[in-house]
Amino acid sequence: MNSELLAPLDLAFWHLESDGHPMHLGALAFFAPADRCRGGHHDDVLELLTTRTAAIRRLRMRVRDVLLPVGGAAWRADKEFDVRRHVHRLRLPGGDFAAEAAAVAGELMERPLPRGLPPWEMHLLTGRPGGEFAVLVKLHHALADGMRAVDIGAGVFDEIAAPRAARLRRTRTAPEGPGAPDPRRLIGFARDRIDDLGRAVGVGASIVRASRLDPRGLPALTAGPSGTRRLGTARLELEEVRRVRHLAGGTVNDVLLTVVAGALRRWAAERGEPLPAPGPRALVPVSRRRPGSPPGSANRLSAYLLELPVTEPDPRARLDAVRTAMDRNRAAGPLRGAGALAVLADQLPPLAHRFGAPLAGGAARLLFDVLVTSVPLPRSALSLGGCPLSAIYPMAPLARGQSLAVALTIYGRRVHVGLVADGKAVPDLDRLAQGLGDEVAELLRLTR
């Protein structure tokens, strides 16, 4: 892959950052102490990270402007690629390692990625010699959506890196040359473009209808951006979440959305903030990847919009409200409604993204207040250099005008929650993180 045009949605994410607003996503992964693992030294882990990331072709690509199409850009191999510009080590004081790592991760997520280099970084965070360590993965959203970020990040784990390298050695063959054009494919292409145009008109109308001229929400979620970042973490017992789903109905995702709504309600009460009616609106991303599609392909996203029922005092009634709304979203599908803004982005020419993306990013506040996304992980146990992965917290980017983004992933027997917030607007992020666990306990008590 020497050159590849940015897909429309990737191009939109790239230009959203053109005015200095970070568009990073990533994860903070914690591992067992190195002295209990194969190598026994953090230097070995750093060398392993360097070697494995350098072998991932996608991470050697940078974005360059192109003459055609006008306003477009392309991924091109960085001829001067040096992995040492991207993989770094930071030694922490070593008191409360988990808290220190989360604080440093928030600060690192504030910093823009250099636009002249492949847009990613990895940071090895270490404490005492041979002790536990963490890896912060930081990727530009143009490089990866949630599923593609998982595929890229998973390339450093022992269970995936070695088999993948062996598979590549076995399957390397000469690329096939282009065949003669098939008239049936040309007809199908034209029909698809007509369908896309009709879909874009429908989505555009839905966006206009759903836009709020007076978007009132929780004051902390609507504060002006300060450019600072804070990371909060929480771990929920997966068995408890599943028990609530079994007793009360819905899906695991419905229960988790209800937990977020309940935690926001508790948090607002502690802060003495009035609860808005209707509640804050969540954007819930949905993957549009088809089964079997290659994970390295472009961003393929849509989203649902959900009013979080924070004014409802009964947790069971909150779950019923979330379940009903999400059932309605799922029945309509990810290609309809205002949440399918990314579908509309696919239909716009590159020049429109170059000039319109910053405007669209500023208008996100008219559509939603908080991002709540689920990130899938491999179900098998993972390790790095023989050190087992003990916890992993995904991090979603903050849209302009928002102060909080919530990302969840299931690993092992727990749901790991990463909360990314504007550091000035949400200085008490740890209280919101604690409210998530309290809400699961309350739901479990009431559904019994």
TrEMBL record:
<dbReference type="GO" id="GO:0004144">
    <property type="term" value="F:diacylglycerol O-acyltransferase activity"/>
</dbReference>
<feature type="domain" description="O-acyltransferase WSD1 C-terminal">
    <location>
        <begin position="299"/>
        <end position="443"/>
    </location>
</feature>
<dbReference type="InterPro" id="IPR004255">
    <property type="entry name" value="O-acyltransferase_WSD1_N"/>
</dbReference>
<dbReference type="GO" id="GO:0006071">
    <property type="term" value="P:glycerol metabolic process"/>
</dbReference>
<dbReference type="GO" id="GO:0019432">
    <property type="term" value="P:triglyceride biosynthetic process"/>
</dbReference>
<keyword id="KW-0444">Lipid biosynthesis</keyword>
<comment type="pathway">
    <text>Lipid metabolism.</text>
</comment>
<keyword id="KW-0808">Transferase</keyword>
<dbReference type="GO" id="GO:0071731">
    <property type="term" value="P:response to nitric oxide"/>
</dbReference>
<feature type="region of interest" description="Disordered">
    <location>
        <begin position="272"/>
        <end position="298"/>
    </location>
</feature>
<dbReference type="Pfam" id="PF06974">
    <property type="entry name" value="WS_DGAT_C"/>
</dbReference>
<dbReference type="InterPro" id="IPR009721">
    <property type="entry name" value="O-acyltransferase_WSD1_C"/>
</dbReference>
<protein>
    <recommendedName>
        <fullName>Diacylglycerol O-acyltransferase</fullName>
        <ecNumber>2.3.1.20</ecNumber>
    </recommendedName>
</protein>
<dbReference type="GO" id="GO:0005886">
    <property type="term" value="C:plasma membrane"/>
</dbReference>
<dbReference type="InterPro" id="IPR014292">
    <property type="entry name" value="Acyl_transf_WS/DGAT"/>
</dbReference>
<comment type="pathway">
    <text>Glycerolipid metabolism; triacylglycerol biosynthesis.</text>
</comment>
<keyword id="KW-0443">Lipid metabolism</keyword>
<keyword id="KW-0012">Acyltransferase</keyword>
<dbReference type="GO" id="GO:0001666">
    <property type="term" value="P:response to hypoxia"/>
</dbReference>
<comment type="similarity">
    <text>Belongs to the long-chain O-acyltransferase family.</text>
</comment>
<dbReference type="Pfam" id="PF03007">
    <property type="entry name" value="WS_DGAT_cat"/>
</dbReference>
<dbReference type="InterPro" id="IPR045034">
    <property type="entry name" value="O-acyltransferase_WSD1-like"/>
</dbReference>
<dbReference type="GO" id="GO:0051701">
    <property type="term" value="P:biological process involved in interaction with host"/>
</dbReference>
<keyword id="KW-0319">Glycerol metabolism</keyword>
<feature type="domain" description="O-acyltransferase WSD1-like N-terminal">
    <location>
        <begin position="6"/>
        <end position="255"/>
    </location>
</feature>
